[in-house]
Amino acid sequence: MNAAAVIAGPTDLRMETRRAEFVEGDDPEFRRMGWPGWRKVWPDFERREAEHFASRSAVDWPGEIDVPLLLLHSRSDSRVPVEHTLKLAALLQQHNKEYEVVVGTPRVERARAALAAWDGRMTKESAAAAIFWWRRTEDAGEVEAQLERALEALALSQGEDETGWRWGRIHRSEFPHPLASEFDLPPVERNGGGGTVNATGAVYRLVTDFSDLDRSLAIIAPGQSGQPGSPFYDNLLEMWARGEMFELPYTRKAVEAAAMHRLVLRPK
After folding, report:
1. What domains can you pick out in the chain, each with its CATH number?
2. Who has the most CB within 10 Å: 75, 133, 149, 152?
């Protein structure tokens, strides 16, 4: 074994058996599970408790642990108090053992689970992508504290309801008119971002097919016309936001066949 992890595990079973709900079984959840309590399961519980549980409690033999240990625990765990993890961590430190302890709040644990399940795609609907981005903006430091600060920033910018968090609310493009705000276009949420193929800020894209130039692809946002009121002023905005492209005719025959509007300038 090269390493091991303890996830919200009891490290001192004597600590657990001294809790009244364990001894007497007077806990709604235990009753639902059919657990009657140590006293009924083990009539001579008090006499045998020390001998039996010492051999099964990691806090009694931290010096014998010879692999790196990762201790994970949520502060919201209602069955195993966080003191179990903290006590073992202190003993491991005293014995100069290699370990890492991560103790999180419920929100941190949910974020950690979301990141662990994330496929790494920066889609506009992804809450994990938003958490990942905020985490990257944090200064170097302890990972738990960084994640906490990232979640606080997300809560401030997108609200306390985590179900409403998404990458698109951070990664969006705006199209204000340079002269008159009446002609501003609504912002659009986008997939991708810095460090991805679908990079931020590229409003014009061209894919040239040199084997058949008329099959080349292009997109420009928000449209091909800069004149407000024109049907071509913003007709490509949503298409661009979705990452789609249109065929771009190149030869004169193809251009004339696809033309929808013709502007003739006659100099005098």
Report:
1. 4-104 (3.40.50.1820), 107-167 (no CATH), 185-258 (no CATH)
2. 133
